[in-house]
Amino acid sequence: MHKKWSVQEKLAVLQEIERSQIGLAAVAKMYGIGKTTLIEWRDRYELNGFEGLEHRICNRSYSADLKIQ
């Protein structure tokens, strides 16, 4: 089961990448996070700031009216 990372934890990991000299792949291994996940976090943070790191709701349910449109 995957760990759910809080916004503060995600930000701390991204800051670790910026201030360290070891690179994204090494930080990913150090924290047990996939490189792709870190890249997604970084891209969302650069695009939307702090809000970009908030938990995204997946598998939304839509009303029948909206589905018909």
Automatic annotation (TrEMBL):
GO terms for molecular function: sequence-specific DNA binding. InterPro entries: Trp_repressor/repl_initiator, WH-like_DNA-bd_sf. It holds the Pfam family HTH_23. SUPFAM superfamilies: TrpR-like. This is Helix-turn-helix domain-containing protein. It comes from Brevibacillus laterosporus.
